[in-house]
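Q: Fold this one first, please.
A: Sequence and structure below.
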Amino acid sequence: MDEPVLTYPVVKIQYEELDSFPLKYDEPFVLAVHWNGVPFEFLIRLRQTQHLIVLGSGAMEKPEPLPYFQRHSWMNEFEDSVIYYNDPTLYLADLPVGWGQGTIDRFYLEDIATLLDKLIAKANISRDHVLFYGSSAGGFMGLMLAGYLRGSTALVNSPQTSLTKWLDVPVRNVFRVSYPGYTFRQASVLHGERINVMKFYKKIKYVPKIYYLQNAACELDMSDHLIPFLSELAFMEPGSTVNPVIVDLYYDPQPGPASFPRIGGHGAVGKLETIDYIRRVRP
């Protein structure tokens, strides 16, 4: 079912105004923070609680107006505060997904983490009570953001853990926009910490607490993302902080497209199951 069109009030500020901006509670609104020419947009619904759920978006199945906040219609299902973030990479070209890659000079996911950290502090919420949720590309971004915001937790469903192991066409389209002039291999080597979750964790010597929800029937997810991700945990440097990684497998055979059957079963579990899972694992 299509989600309703965004009708939330929009507040536009400059980055320099964020520290003094008064947060609003109870009523949802879109906060657009303009930072050195880039709009970073957040759909926010704060409540007087000590817990926050941060949701990211996977790929758009059809063109949607930006900003794109997947699952925004779920907002009132949660008793906790919620923040959805848009990926500004989508403004750089006609892309259904951007994985927060940004530009050569600017990794948008890192900027999103900085802004979220400021918003979380303004709302007087401890990072220990923050849960990042996302599926597929949203799961990739959730894993990265939880690494930036130490103490937070990630709940991901069928995430990409290495973009070079995902579907060739959408990844190459993003790389052409984010890393122009670089070959696919050059971008993968020079910007590996942006592209591969475990390379990022090894760089920062930290693995956040992760709940990894995966359909074991999806061959591509299992062989190219989950298993390599878990295998690389053994090679974290001594002295690294490695929090628990809890893998929850389910089995739901689904046919993939005839041209690429290995992707069958990649979709996330349904709304009710996802909401129940978020409620059960949120710190």
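Q: Good. Now the second chain.
A: Here it is, same layout.
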Amino acid sequence: MPSVLPLGDPAPSDGRLPEQAASGAASRAFGLYVHIPFCAVRCGYCDFNTYTATELGGGASQDAYASTAISEVDFAARVLEESGLPARKLSTVFFGGGTPTLLPAEDLARILRAAIDTWGIEPGAEVTTEANPDSVTPESLQLLADAGFTRVSFGMQSAVPHVLKVLDRTHTPSRVPLVVQWARDAGLAVSLDLIYGTPGESLDDWRYSLETALSYRPDHISAYALIVEDGTKLAAQIRRGEVPGIDDDDHADKYELADRMISDAGLHWYEVSNWSATPEQACRHNLAYWRGDDWWGIGPGAHSHVGGVRWWNVKHPTAYAGRLASGASPAAGRETLDAETRSVEKVMLEARLSSGLQTAALSPSGRKAVAGLIADGLVAPADAFRGRLVLTLKGRLLADAVVRRILPD
């Protein structure tokens, strides 16, 4: 959730959605994202809409946040009903941040309970929280599991102390195996998030991080290339020459190493940056994003999407709480996507999945480009002959270039 909000049309104060949003809704899954915008420290690479305690003012309070988020749950239910959306149970819930587990586990449980009381939840639904390794205890994880959480995604990032230092991470590597075991003892599935390409990280450093993460036998691994965002502390450090810059070839080498090692450990890629031990352990919430399902985003700066209507909340927790307290929508802006835009986004997102993209969904020029992609080793020939565009390893490294070639001119 980048800290800079997109441009868009004004959002109505009552939050009412256009008729388009209700069309076909009964056939789409409905999920909930809950943004917890608090962190103990701001990591130098982070561009997300997060705040430390010293950055908050004007009455914004972590203590009151659960109640404020619950008020948006109530608001969302009213808007969806008044906009003609059918009643749908939650298929996934995802608490992200920030660091959701900086809030007491009781508060996270309260928000989840309010959402379930409001919409209901599908049997076997996935309920995830992100967590920093130093923000949980055995007791807090057990409380979350008892409340209905099924999965925890730990921000491990690296197993190498000097890499964690550059990233401004506050946990020590020795903490990770402890929290993984605590989560397993509570009955939670475990995902580990890793970052590669940190300035000063060698290929051997990255190999050690992968070996260490895999030794914990996680159900799921995410491995993301570090992106240096303008305005971050890390961007300033690189600009001043205090740390080395980012190298695309280094990123490619590290991605290839990650795919080989993670695959050899028995996990399978299902999205360019994500691997799971079984198809059932793929992150269903993120798959809903990539497949264009519906979700409501709770919290400051949170984004939502329902039936081709996308909107985003005001950024600051104080402004967010004030909007809801006055009975107004917290949305800062929104856009209604036309058929062409939705088609383009479908190509951009589904092309990243191991299940691939139906070539029938491409424009005539896009279908014509597939032969060249096969010749260049970017697309799997057997899948293409069966009518699906599936990226090869080389294609995953050049996923953005592949998408540009299959989109209409």
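Q: Anything worth noting on the second one?
A: The longest strand covers residues 121-131.
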